[in-house]
Specification:
304 residues; two-stranded antiparallel ribbon; elongated
């Protein structure tokens, strides 16, 4: 009696089947992942901030959102900052970039909507007598109108992610423009205050020179009548010359600061119109207790 025998599969068949199964699973996984939007949705990390203002809301908003440089109460400074905002080249470049990215965002977003196209054509031809039907005119006019509608199904999330990216770029460029505005206004204001400080130092130095000139005259007179020694007269002359030597230095520093401000406001180097003195400027006071939420308004942080 013979025993029944069964064919034994070869050892090479198992790896082939395993590879086939892995390939099928990999393809299925790729298709399933591709049906979702590319990349995870951005979620803003939680930030602990105070739940309410420590100051009355109108006062805080007035300080944070207003034209803060107007608190100096100097019309000359206001005019300088307005000229800088109107003429500065860097600000114009930043504004043009915002317009460029706004156009890109609009073009990218338009791809999510149906595309409609239309075209038309017309013609007029003369028919030969052999081609005309009885009673048909010798010339004929033909018109053709084509209308097409196309729409791309965003199965893979490409268009949506591209739109989100374009919008993020647009917002970043808008914040970059605000950064330029903030830096420009701050530089003009600080430069103007520094200029008024140099003016005050020059005025103080000139007053000192005038005072020491009188002291030198008195010291010489006292020496001539024998009340003091020559050393006292020489010392008074030295102090007078030392003070007088500072005047050209301050004048050069003032001219340099005027040139810097002229470049900031987009003008050729030249004199800057003054307003209030340094002592008359009313410095802005930042009230205590401002919430940390104001930090989120910084353009460089919002741009990031």
């Amino acid at each position: 009696m013979r025993k029944a025998t069964h064919p034994i599969p070869s050892a090479s068949a198992h790896p082939a089947r395993a590879r086939l199964r892995l390939s099928v699973l990999a393809v299925c996984a790729a298709l399933a992942a591709g049906c979702a939007a590319v990349g995870p949705d951005y979620e803003r990390p939680p930030v602990e901030v105070p739940g309410q203002w420590r100051l009355p809301q109108p006062s805080v908003n007035e300080l944070a959102n207003g034209a803060w440089w107007q608190q100096f109460a100097d019309p000359a400074l206001d005019a300088l900052i307005q000229a800088a905002l109107d003429e500065n080249r860097d600000l114009r470049i930043a504004a043009s970039r915002v317009e460029e990215y706004r156009g890109r965002y609009g073009a990218t977003r338009a791809e999510q909507f149906p595309q409609v196209s239309a075209s038309g054509s017309g013609g007029r031809a003369r028919l030969a007598e052999s081609q005309r039907l009885p009673g048909q005119p010798a010339t004929g006019t033909t018109w053709q109108v084509d209308l097409g509608v196309s729409f791309e199904l965003d199965l893979w999330g490409r268009l949506r992610r591209a739109t989100e990216s374009a919008r993020a770029d647009l917002l970043a460029q808008e914040e970059a423009r605000r950064t330029v505005v903030l830096a420009l206004v701050a530089n003009v204001a600080s430069g103007y205050v520094a200029l008024r400080g140099l003016d005050q130092q020059l005025a103080t130095t000139r007053a000192t020179v005038s005072s020491r000139a009188e002291s030198t005259r008195l010291a010489r007179r006292r020496f001539e009548v024998g009340l003091t020694s020559e050393l006292d007269a020489r010392q008074a002359e030295s102090e007078y010359e030392s003070a007088r030597a500072l005047i050209p230095q301050y004048e050069a520093a003032i001219a340099q600061q005027e040139n810097n401000l002229s470049l900031l406001i987009g003008r050729n180097p030249g004199p800057i119109l003054r307003g209030r003195t340094l002592a008359q400027l009313r410095l802005p006071q930042a009230p205590a207790g401002l919430p940390s939420d104001l930090l989120a308004r910084r353009p460089d942080i919002r741009q990031a």
